Amino acid sequence: MAGNAKGGSHVEFGEYGLKAIDRGWITNRQIEAARIAMTRKIKRGGKVWINIFPDKPYTKKPAETRMGSGKGSPEGWVAVVKPGRVMFEMSGVPEPLAREAMRLAGHKLPVKTKFVTRESEGLG
Which of 71, 83, 94, 57 is nearest to 1 (CA)? Predict the structure, then answer.
């Protein structure tokens, strides 16, 4: 996972975004937990976009299994995230509320994140 995000590094749809600073795998459960945390905070106001999709399967061997005997069965799905990727976007809410909602969502994710706005990226 070397390098930075190739695309999706600007806020395209909403006014505010949550940008990854680290690299890592984000599971479908972590994405859903972050989405729920955001929508609960904004109380059904505004609109939320999810710009990452878990399209990579990862496998795991059962516990207490001897080495060898092939590859394990698929365990779940992950999205590969590189630094600079805008993972979530939001619009239709005041900035302090969006900032707090994105902070709560960032705590659910295994990568470091930062809050960005459309203006801060010079795309106003």
Answer: 83
